[in-house]
Amino acid sequence: MDDNLVISHKQKDNPLINHLRHVPYEFGEVKADFCIGQSIGILFISQKFHRLSPNYLPNRICSFKDKFSKKFIICQVDLQDPFPVLESIQLLAIKSHITLLLSWSPAESAKLIEICRIYVLKPSTYINPSPSTIYESVIEALTKSCKISTSNAKMLMERFNTLHGIMNATYDELRKCPGIGDKKAEFIVNAFNSPFKLSESDTVVD
């Protein structure tokens, strides 16, 4: 299959492979350390290895950077002071236009690879929600944060079109909306303009 996870033979002793439990994989001759179909290439590096062999990662990047449309480096953080080495790896990733992912264990590294593999099979709407899903999320956010009814939230969306419009509406603009009135208008304005704090009540404003 075009979306198979193929692991380079050079990685056969990598401990993270023992944690790949949710996706099928096979070993093969590939340009990256881990390949998903023809489009995704992943390089793996640990900080300790990069400190010992600083030329390894740049050479690997040169050998694979033009082969894939989506490129990742998984960097396993395993130094007590990770920042100097991390800065070096981050600079390489930025210059090469490669996404850098961090992990703190072989299990986490494997999980990142599994996530990349699983998302290949997802439709674009899985990552980019449909307009209806966004609308429903805004309505839910309004009812919970402003403690208003669903019908009130839908009316506000019809009046101001977007959540941004509601957040920037004035007290006078809100109180003129059908079903809102003075008390709800004041609560909505405070909800979007007051510092966050725990509320003693979780009831809808009448």
From TrEMBL:
Pfam families linked: HHH (PF00633), Rad10 (PF03834)
Source taxon at top rank: Eukaryota
Localization terms from the record: Nucleus
Assigned GO CC terms: ERCC4-ERCC1 complex; nucleotide-excision repair factor 1 complex
Chief subcellular location: nucleus
CDD domains tied to this protein: ERCC1_C-like
Family (UniProt): Belongs to the ERCC1/RAD10/SWI10 family.
Protein name, entry field: DNA excision repair protein ERCC-1
Organism from which the protein derives: Babesia microti (strain RI)
